[in-house]
Amino acid sequence: MSKLISEKTKEVFLGPLSKNNPITVQVLGICSALAVTSKLEPALVMGISVTIIVAFSNVIISLLRNTIPNRIRIIVQLVVVAALVTVVSEILKAYAYDVSVQLSVYIGLIITNCILMGRLEAFAMGNKPWESFVDGLGNGFGYAWILVAVAFVRELLGSGSLLGFKVIPQSVYDAGYMNNGLMMMPPMALIIVACIIWIHRARNKDLQEK
Amino acid sequence: MNTNSNGYTVIYATVMVIIVALMLALVSSALKDTQTANVELDKKKQILASLNIDLEGKDAATIYDEYIVEEMVVNNEAEILDTTKFCAFKIDFLKELAKAEAERKLPIYVAKIDGKTKYIMSMKGTGLWGPIWGYVALNEDKNSIFGSYFSHASETPGLGAEIAYKPFQRTLIDKKILGADLTFKSISVLKPDNKPNSEYEIDGISGGTITSKAVEKMIFNCLGQYKAFYDIKVEGGAK
To answer: Would you call A67 and B27 a contact, using CB atoms and an 8 Å cutoff?
Structure first.
């Protein structure tokens, strides 16, 4: 069992959740983070999709890593990612049509998400399948929890609902409260991500530049 | 083994592409039926949206069967070609638009709301960045507009994409498509700053002029095809 949860594997999984977070520390994959976070549901689906794709493409590339011709390795990585993304997008169209309409092009654009290519090049090409899988999960969850956190704030303050359910009672609106329209605009996603980065860096002093 | 030789690279790429292609084809054909069902349900929702029906939390397929009492397919002389169930629904409107005008099969959905007949016409056109489409529901006089629905593939959010929202769609309600002499006149979408002051004009979207004009053109082109149909006398109708 020691192999499964060795110190290194644990670090591989936990690192991207906090100290090495793809969004707040490496600032990768920002574009989709801004685009799909005005509501909680698409953010959740996007987070899960990216996690699944990054984990499995990591495993596949890691299994193939010794056979891939060096000159076409980026192409091979892209083909693997593109195939997985297409499968996920087809499944969404079949079983979560409304969400797939909402996410529209962003599911397809997972192919170009920098997190994926980054993990494949930097990790999966040089590590065993199990570690690569854990690394993919870690980075996927690291990406997903930021998306969900941003979407939580934006949907709550922008629409007064969570996952489509009204959570702010009508009496509050009657008393003069209004939904914040700015929350629904893309700039607000950037501002919220910036706030998360701020808190994150304030708590982890070693992330701050000297 | 030398993984960097040309032969190996070519074979590797070929085999990989074939495997991936097979896998994708398999997934696509396995999920096709479910996807088609979703697309059809979505189309039903869109048609119902032109009748101003709130579908929140309801099953669109049931509501569709409840409100859409008849479907018909007509040609541009308004001769009825088909009235079987789902005959209009099955028509690929885009394909019909590609044909010569006399050969087109035009779908009409007939709905009953509070005992009153409504006719729903299909529309398809081109916006600024991609296709736009929609449905217009006419009252039983085949002249005044009861409701409308528009959607788009990729218009600019906040500008042209506003056509997909109720505030724009509601401006069409009670407007008329036939002129005083009861010939087809269509609706003009005005540029911002020109206040609509007749029942043939609606306000365009600021910053979305090209999309607004595309909507105008789409209404003119698509509703115009049913010209002969508007002339047919109906009880309490225009003529």
So the answer is: no
Q: What residues contact residue B113 under an 8 Å CB cut-off, 6+ apart?
A: B51, B67, B146
Distance CA A202, CA A200 (A): 5
Range of the domain at A85: 7-207
pTM of this prediction exceeds 0.80: no
Contact A90 B3 (CB under 8 A): no
Beta carbons of A59 and A129 less than 8 angstroms apart: yes
Say whether the ipTM exceeds 0.90. no
Domain for residue A97, yes or no? yes
The verdict on residue A2 lying in a domain is no
In sequence order, what DSSP letters do the residues of chain A get, joined into one string?
-TTTT-HHHHHHHHGGGTTT-TTTTS--SHHHHHHS-SSHHHHHHHHHHHHHHHHHHHHHHHHHTTTS-GGGHHHHHHHHHHHHHHHHHHHHHHH-HHHHHHHTHHHHGGGG-HHHHHHHHHTGGGS-HHHHHHHHHHHHHHHHHHHHHHHHHHHHHHHSEETTEE-S-HHHHHTT----GGGGSHHHHHHHHHHHHHHHHHH-GGGS--
Domain count of the fold of chain A:
1
Which residue among A70, A87, A94 places its CB closest to the CB of B38?
A94
CA distances (Å), origin A86, targets A49, A56, A77, B167: 11, 13, 14, 36
Residue A172 near chain B (CB below 8 Å): no
Phi, psi of A152 (to 5 degrees): -60, -50
Residue A1 lies in a domain: no
Question: Which positions ≥6 away from B93 have C-beta within 8 Å?
Answer: B107, B122, B124
Nearest to A121 by CA among A184, A32, A58, A53: A58
Sign for the pseudo-dihedral over CA of B10, B15, B18, B20: negative
pLDDT of residue A177: 84
Please give the average pLDDT of every successive group of 10 residues along chain B, which has 239 residues.
Answer: 85 93 94 90 90 80 87 86 84 87 89 89 91 92 91 81 87 88 85 77 86 92 88 56
* CB-based contact B53:B118 (threshold 8 Å): no
- Note whether B194 contacts A: Cβ–Cβ < 8 A: no
Lowest mean pLDDT segment, chosen from A34-43, A80-89, A97-106, A192-201 = A97-106
Q: Is B29 on the interface with A (CB under 8 A)?
A: no
